Amino acid sequence: MPGLYIGATSGYSGKNMVGIGLGLKFKEMGLNVGYMKPVGALPLEKDGKLGDEDAFFVQDVLGLTGAPEQVTPVVVTHDFKVQAFSGKSEPAVPRIQEAYQALGQGRDLVLVAGSGSMYSGKYCGVDGVTLCREMDLKCVIIDRFQKDLKYDYLAIMKESLGDRLAGVILNDIPATFMDEVNELIKPFLERIGIRVLGVIPTDTIMGTITVSDLADRLGGKVVSAHASADRVVERFLIGTMQVENFMTHFRKHQNAAIIVGGDRSDVQLVALEGDAPCLILTGNLYPNDIILTRSEVLKTPIIIAREDTFTVAKKMESILSRHKLRDKIKIEQGAKLIAEHIDLEYLKKELGV
Question: Which of 93, 124, 245, 348, by CA, is between 20 and 30 Å from 130?
Fold first, then answer.
């Protein structure tokens, strides 16, 4: 029974997207696909059983019903860490192997999702490199573009995994970097024996978040135009400048949430009239009646955030780069990106399915 480990050079690289996309596509091809996430970093109790939040979600999308203790045999709770650091925990790999064998019964392929990077979990012997070796799994590694690609890391992974490395996926590549990837980095990787299974371009849909989800992640609350809280945010703009300068920048940034001090009604009004998807007012300051009225009329939600503008902007930057794959439209788009940009036939051949 072949298994495919889906790892990454860092957290928040697109492992769920790739796992769901591959799972859905392989099922379309007629394969009986199983799924597990051996190490769960997001503990969640469901129906009285402890599992991993992402694992529950992926199983649901793929239409699978594995027992949480098999799907995620190792859940990283505080107690687990204490046991591991004190040297009192039992070896986890045998438990993972047993669960893998049970989940693989009758399956053509089991997708094994990594947690964090390929080295995450090294302190307790459940890192990606160790699991691939101990369980004899083929592996794909996702490298998401974040100012650059981690080609040194990928080269080390080739040395560590050898033929177990089926290939790499370069994810979220901006248009401005695409030529360099195709003409320089991809040929380099393949020259040192690393198959590039696909290059996935930056996609605006995958980088969006709804206003309501954004409010939750910021720890704020929507105070107006609640019916429009499903509007989509792609980016953000800080409204600390003079109104004239702000207007110039605002015209260049569509679908940008405007982060502005709660006392800057001049900038707030310009943002409302310019059809921003939402306003985020900082400093826990509520807008005046004029702003609230225009917000309702124009159906532009306003979020009140407690922190100062700088802190909220830093949070926004993190949220927009790391928020979870949850919306139906993102799931569908992610599956489409995998189908269009990943060499699935090569991967099937490599896995022997």
Answer: 348
Q: How confident is the model at residue 251 (pLDDT cuts 50, 70, 90)?
A: low
Q: Do 58 and 15 belong to one domain? A: yes
Q: HSE on the CB side for 83, CA within 13 Å?
A: 12
164 and 63, same domain (yes or no): yes
State whether 186 and 233 are in the same domain. no
Dihedral sign (CA 91, 93, 96, 102): negative
Kindly state the DSSP code that residue 305 receives in the 8-state scheme: -
Task: Evaluate whether 132 touches 164 at the Cβ level (below 8 Å).
Answer: yes
Structure tokens at 166: 């089926």
Contact criterion met (CB below 8 Å) for 260 and 240: yes
Find out whether 301 and 294 touch, Cβ atoms under 8 Å.
no
Do 23 and 95 reside in the same domain of the chain?
Answer: yes
CATH of the domain at 78: 3.40.50.300
- Number of domains forming the structure of the chain: 2
If asked whether residues 140 and 195 sit together in one domain, one would say yes
- In the numeric block, which tokens belong to residue 45? 């109790």
pLDDT digits (tens, 9 = 90+) for 124-165: 999 999 999 999 999 999 999 988 999 999 999 999 999 999
**Residue 195: which residues within 8 A CB-CB, separation 6 or more?**
166, 167, 168, 346
Instruction: Please state which of the ranges 4-18, 64-78, 325-339 shows the lowest mean pLDDT.
Output: 325-339
CA Rg value for the chain: 23
Structure tokens at 20: 């769901």
Residue 145 pairs in a beta bridge with none
Domain, as residue range, for 84: 3-206+325-351
Among 14-23, 144-153, 193-202, 257-266, which is the least confidently predicted range? 257-266
Q: What are the tens digits of pLDDT across the range 77-96?
A: 999 999 999 988 889 999 99
